[in-house]
Design a protein that fits this description.
Layout: E1 5-8, H1 19-33, H2 37-44, H3 47-54, H4 59-69, H5 75-89, H6 96-105, E2 109-114, H7 118-123, E3 135-138, H8 139-142, H9 149-159, E4 166-170, H10 176-182, E5 186-190, E6 208-210
Parallel strand pairs: 1-2, 1-4, 2-3, 4-5, 5-6
Helix pairs in contact: 1-2, 1-5, 2-4
C-alpha cells in the first residue's frame, strides 16, 4: 500500500528527552513531599506505579506514592509542578515544524503515538507544534501503551487510514518498531548521526533509519 500517513513517536524522536530534566522533575517532587530523593525515586519507579501512570491518570499515582511514603502533601501543587516542567520540555527538534508542514502540504496525514504520562496530553495544545498533527494518541489517556497493537490501530483509525498505509518513526523505545511492523506499518528508526541507537533491541536494526526528523521527507512521496 502507498504511504498516506506518517506517525511519530514523541520522546527522542520529535522532542529530546533529557535525563537531567527528569532528575530535576523528580528532585522537585521529592522536595515538595519532604522526602529523600532516593526514597522517592524508589517508590515512584516501582513496577506498579510506573505501569499505572503510563496508562492512566497521574493524580492517583501521586496519592498512592504519598501513602507509601507516609506523607501528606499538597497534591495539586505537585501536579502543577509536573505539568509546568513537562510544558517546558516539549521543545521541538530542529526542522520539525517545517517537516510537518511539508508532509501536510503533500496531502499526507500526520499522527503521533506516545507512551507518556497524562501531563503531555494536558499541555499538548499549548505546544508550538501540536496543531500540525491530525491525530495524537497518548498512552495515559488511551489506556493503552506501545507495543500493544491496539494503540497503533487506534492511531491509524484516528487518521482515517489503514495501518498498512502508515509509516511509523521512532527511536525504538518500548519495542515500538516491532509493534508498528506487526500491525503492518512501515517502521523507521531515528537516532542521531554518529551515535548508536540508545535501545539495545534496535542496535542491529535492519530496516529503514534516519538521523534527523527532516529526513522523513526523503522517504515519502
Amino acid at each position: 500500500m502507498p504511504v498516506r500517513a506518517v506517525v511519530f513517536d514523541l520522546w527522542d524522536t520529535i522532542v529530546d528527552f533529557d535525563l537531567a530534566w527528569s532528575e530535576t522533575l523528580n528532585a522537585g517532587i521529592a522536595e515538595r513531599l519532604d522526602v529523600p530523593y532516593e526514597r522517592f525515586v524508589e517508590v515512584w519507579y516501582s513496577d506498579e506505579l510506573t505501569a499505572s501512570r503510563n496508562v492512566g491518570p497521574i493524580a492517583p499515582c501521586v496519592t498512592a506514592a504519598c501513602a507509601t511514603l507516609g506523607v501528606v502533601a499538597d497534591e495539586d501543587d505537585v501536579l502543577a509542578w509536573r505539568r509546568e516542567l513537562v510544558r517546558r520540555a516539549l521543545v521541538p527538534r530542529e526542522g520539525l515544524h517545517e517537516t510537518l508542514a511539508e508532509l501536510r502540504e503533500r496531502d499526507l496525514r500526520v499522527g503521533l503515538v506516545s507512551n507518556c504520562t497524562e501531563e503531555v496530553a494536558l499541555v499538548w495544545d499549548e505546544t508550538s507544534f501540536g496543531h500540525l498533527f491530525d491525530h495524537a494518541v497518548f498512552s495515559a489517556t488511551a489506556g493503552l501503551a506501545k507495543p500493544d497493537p491496539a494503540i497503533f490501530r487506534l492511531a491509524a483509525g484516528g487518521l482515517g487510514v489503514e495501518p498498512g498505509e502508515c509509516m511509523f518513526v521512532g527511536d525504538g523505545a518500548n519495542d515500538e518498531l516491532r509493534g508498528a511492523r506487526d500491525v503492518g506499518m512501515t517502521p523507521v528508526l531515528i537516532h542521531p548521526c554518529g551515535r548508536d541507537p540508545y535501545w539495545d533491541e534496535v542496535r542491529g536494526w535492519d530496516g529503514l533509519r534516519i538521523h534527523a526528523v527532516t529526513e522523513v521527507l526523503e522517504l515519502v512521496p
